[in-house]
Amino acid sequence: MRNFDTWLAQFRDSISNYNYYTDFKKVIENARPLKAELHILNSLIGSNDIEVEFRELLKNYPSILRAIPILLAKRESEIYARDDEGGGVYNFGGMVQDVDEYCVFMRKTGLFDLISKHLVNNLYDYVVGVETGLDSNGRKNRGGHLMEDLVEGFLRRADVEYYKEMYSDDLARRWGIDISSLTNSGKTVKRFDFVVKTSSCVYAIETNFYGSGGSKLNETARSYKMLAIESQNIKGFKFVWFTDGAGWRSARQNLRETFDVLPTVFNIKEIEDGVMSSLFI
């Protein structure tokens, strides 16, 4: 018999890998298409008469408009800005419209000051920094896949027949398993992160890692507790949950309740210790 407290004490604070923090390939891919326009705008750095020179640049190189939104950490080609003197929607994706309005925008957003006062040395390098900052928003999505990637790596090493992101109706159709008790008699569809098929059983797998607490953890534990109970009488089917993360310490009671009814809930240490080889038989 496993002891819940001992099991929970093995949970980890983080599973972040080296690629989690910043996707520099994506950063460069986002910045590169504007490289020419940004280098043209570089000619304005330190300008003593930036509005006049900006007008001249815009006349000769209207495509520089495309590079302006990202200077404000915006990727949209239309930006709304207004104050008590006026304003509205500024379009940076097409033909030059009212040059006076673009000058107002550059002045009031502070971009003229940024460039003319030499607060940056190179606008392309500046945009690479902006894109790096924007990419930090992608960490949540990358973090959501870390546990899936970890589990998939061990599934490959376990040399089992597995499928990624399979829906409940696919299980019923492919292997004739009656899982109506999990889907409200077919009225809902459940997606599993992985499904492992052996000669005697189909294992439906969910994976997650919670580095911090929150109400979602309690909802997840309750949901999987229900799945555990409802799946007990399904012939040839088992529900498996691979989870970890220090966030569970704040939701330990709900996790304990699931642990008590789901013998196939495992943490990363158990995965590393080879639980898959004894589980998928």
Structural summary, described in words:
The protein is of the alpha/beta class and 281 residues long. Helices cover 46% and strands 16% of the residues. It folds into two domains: 154 residues, Trna Endonuclease, Chain: A, domain 1 (3-Layer(aba) Sandwich), CATH 3.40.1350; 114 residues, no CATH class.
What is the strand and helix layout of this fold?
Elements: H1 4-9, H2 24-31, H3 35-41, H4 50-60, H5 68-71, E1 78-83, E2 86-91, H6 99-108, H7 111-116, H8 123-135, H9 139-158, E3 161-167, H10 168-175, E4 191-197, E5 202-209, H11 215-231, E6 237-244, H12 252-261, E7 265-266, H13 268-272, H14 275-279
Parallel strand pairs: 5-6, 6-7
Antiparallel strand pairs: 1-2, 3-4, 4-5
Helix pairs in contact: 2-8, 11-12
Global morphology: elongated
| CATH fold descriptor of the largest domain | Trna Endonuclease, Chain: A, domain 1
In the residues, how many domains can be counted? 2
The total of helices stands at 14
Spatial extent as radius of gyration: 27 Å
CATH architecture of the largest domain: 3-Layer(aba) Sandwich
How many beta strands in the DSSP annotation? 7
Q: What's the story with the biggest beta sheet?
A: 5 strands, mixed
Under the CATH scheme, which class of the largest domain? Answer: Alpha Beta
The helicity comes to 40-55%
Quote the average pLDDT: 93
What structural category arises from helix and sheet content? alpha/beta
C-alpha end-to-end distance? 20 Å
- Could you state the order of secondary-structure elements as H and E? HHHHHEEHHHHEHEEHEHEHH
Major sheet strand order: 3-4-5-6-7
- In percent, how much strand structure appears in the residues? 15-25%
Low-confidence stretches: none
